[in-house]
Amino acid sequence: MDIRFSDREIRDLAVAWVALGVAFTAFYFNGALRSLLGGTPSADVLPVLGIGFVLSMLTAGIGFLLHELAHKVVAVRYGQLAEFRADYSMLFLAVMAGFAGFLFAAPGAVYHRGRITAREQGLIALAGPAVNVALVAVFAGVWIGGEAAGVGLLGTIGYLGVIINALLAGFNMLPFGPLDGKKVMRWSRPVWIASAVPTIGGAIAFFFL
Predict the structure, then answer these.
(1) pLDDT (tens digit per residue) in 170-192
(2) 0.70 exceeded by the pTM?
(3) Which residues form the signal peptide (predicted)?
(4) Which of 64, 110, 133, 201 is deepest in the core (most CB within 10 A)?
């Protein structure tokens, strides 16, 4: 299987990754950001925002990146021509929403073309949320390990990674619009139910952590 990336695709992935890092930093560290913009920041505001940006890149950024790469890999596996395209207007809205204290992310999508069956289309769609579920398990291990070792930074990375990837998996399995859940449901309602119940339920549960 030959996975290739065009210069434009690499640029779009990088821009989307950074933009989501900024958006999630603005959302999760909104108090520090407002203090900075209000002209009355404490001495530790810039370090806090810097750490927040790194945390966001390592959690939301990686969750997004691997989600999209999973779509691409499976699409190529089925003989598709597949490439990620960033949606710059949606990325701008994501950043503005983060500054306003809201969480919103629709950074773009992997577009693919070629002859394909409904099953293959469904499996391509399912690959993204499946990767986020796997990342929930990985970050849960980091969270537990960080807490057990008394390493607060690892615990925070793990905690944020669990929350963000659970939300990404659950949100994308909703059967609406261009989301992955609608494509999975179009292929197989039983597969969608088996996938959506734990992912959407998990997202709702983790949202309140």
Answers:
(1) 999 999 888 899 999 999 999 99
(2) yes
(3) none
(4) 64
Contact 78, 113 (CB under 8 A): no
Q: Is 103 helix (H, G, I), strand (E, B) or coil?
A: coil
- Tokens 């992912």 appear where? 199
The tokens describing 82, both together, are 């597949």
Decide if 120 is catalytic.
no
**Residue 81 tokens, joined:** 């021509």
Catalytic residue of the set 9, 68, 83, 120: 68
Count other C-beta atoms under 10 Å from residue 73's C-beta. 17
Tokens in use for 152? 């607060």
Q: Which residue has the tokens 């927040």?
A: 52
Side chain identity at residue 108, one-letter code? G
Greatest Cα-to-Cα distance within the chain, rounded to the nearest angstrom: 58
Interior angle at CA 31, CA 28 and CA 34, nearest 5 = 115
